[in-house]
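User: Predict structure, ligand alpha-L-arabinofuranose.
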Amino acid sequence: YDVEVGLDPAFTVGTVDPRLYGSFVEHMGRCVYGGIFEPDHPTADEHGFRQDVADLVRELGVTTIRYPGGNFVSGYRWEDGVGPVAERPRRLDLAWRSLEPNTVGTDEFCRWARGVGIDPIMAVNLGTRGVDAAVDLLEYTNFAPGSTSTADRRVANGNKDPHAVGTWCLGNEMDGPWQVGHKTADEYGRLAAETARAMRRADPDLELVACGSSNGAMPTFGTWERTVLEHTYDLVDHISLHAYFEPVGGDVDSFMASSEDMRRMITAIAATADHVGAVRRSGKRLTISFDEWNVWYQHRFSGQAGLDVNENAPLIEDVYDVTDAVVVGDLLMALLDHCDRVAIACQAQLVNVIAPIMTRIGGPAWRQTIFHPFALTARHARGTVLRAAVRTAPLPTQRYGDVPGTRVTAVQDPETGALTLLAANRNRTEPARLTVPLRAFDQHGRRPRLLEHVAIADADPSATNTAEHPDRVVPRPVTGTVLDGEQTLTATLPPSSWHLIRLG
Ligand code: AHR
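Assistant: Predicted complex:
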């Protein structure tokens, strides 16, 4: 089927905030212990962090990481994770019913993150704790030596320089009955407002994220945000959203169109925030922190809820295939297409736990299929997102009705004029014939040239990467793509495929 794309550099959506390429590290399963941190591993540095994993994190292009949870944070006492390691308590983590050794805490994580060139985002516990603990953690993390006793504890623990965390999440998924310390929207809204007010008095320059809905199917979706923002509108910068996608009942066509749901959620919550702003006659425009998103085969793990209590047991270690990688690439395109409203996004999670990077204890680290669309997008889709008018045959789906068979996102670097096209052919049986007239991109007599066309596509959409075959699925060059004398780009997108086309 044919796909025609209309683009003009003058028609833009907005600028990509680099924090759109965020990730998430939770004390859960083998994300921290046996993931980023494994002191006995041959590549571990003097602090116990695996350097093979750190190298892959750099290659992934992650810009920011939310820490330490997730559901974990709602029962976390941050004080347990600082000071001499031998004196740190072992605690029962109520979220995942596991034993938390507290070997890694705020200082270790922030030092590691800075070492791999990443800006940490910190979440505070508004499940079992409140204003005091949040402000103490802020002082501990960010205040200058000599300013307060709490800041000096950090210095005494060997961290003279503040960790300078600028963005803070006010709790996690407080709308979910599974959350330790779950609250109604009014209860949470009040607590979030009081915490935000106190944190702002400590540091007026922070960016604060209020908890929005845990997923688009929550019965309180929309009303939760309205009530929470009625309490917090003037005090926060972002409202969070979380969403995980999987094929439900074998319905792969709807799964291929998961980003339609993500797009719906973003539009709905932006409208909800704007409604609260309108009622307040506010000139302020809130943005969204989509701080947990990914493919997650939740049905595979439904039995893991009543776990035996143990330490570092593997949890939700999804192995991703080609289809999942196409969906992840398409979800990234949805975030980019809404870059005027989505300021932060964190793929959940970074290592082992529903993650682009997998490790074996004492063994290798490797890239899952979903690593590749993330890494390519994070590297090349920087700058200005353009409005793409796409004419395409529809894909009928059970869940979302008729959706575009192919989605296309265009991002231009305003400095160099380089143009990056991302495309996902969600049709599992039909190739798409892509046509993009690019004459409008001739600038100062200089015509764009085709630099690269690579794709995630495979005759076997269920192919995966494993420790034994880590590069079974990688982006491969696409042949036959042409930019002709009329400056029209043509390419064939095989069924179920994700693409990166670069022009410069
Ligand atoms: O990422 C796994 C879990 O999913 C997080 O702990 C929680 O916030 C979400 O429900």
